[in-house]
Model the fold of this input.
Amino acid sequence: MHFEILVEDQSGKKALNMLVPKIIDDEHTFRIHSYKGIGRIPKNLGDEVDVNKRILLDRLPKLLRGYGNTFVGYPDDYPAAVILVCDLDDKCLKEFRQELFSILGGCNPKPETRFCVAIEEGEAWFLGDIPAIKAAYPHAKDSVLNGYVNDSVCGTWEYLADAIFSGGSLALSAKGWQATGSEKSVWSEKITPHMDVENNASTSFCYFREKLRELADSMTMD
Done:
């Protein structure tokens, strides 16, 4: 099977480029597309969006329609699927998923699609694997890491920064959003290689892992 994976930023792309091969066999192929932020779902799904603005949710209706048309041409013995990976942030999960499925329902033909939402943010997947963080950052603060509740809404990236960044989240925030984005990419590069995909305490990561495998296995069984 071929996977088209959509993520909201460069740090997510770096992490998934390393994680996906740990989850599915190399008989499957994948391509990861990163965007410049998550944005928001358009109120009018038929509105045209500026293609130069690479904002994930803003472009999602057009992207899914395009994939639906493209996947029709894929051979039956090598189908394709879309995997959307994005942060929940402060949204209601139930309402957000309803909006996403509404977009998918408006596609004809409809691409095989799975929506995988990191709760609250992508850093929750790193925090689900404390040994990987400690391997990348041996001096990470145990007092912070041990207090984390998996997939909790607590300011996840700030929590990780407090554990591993000199001066914590306040010092990183003071450097500005560009520096914060760059540091998140560094976290992806350093932590992801150590992650054990079979043992992760983040429920949202496990959901992503299982959805990939379910799709890959369905193709193998066929």
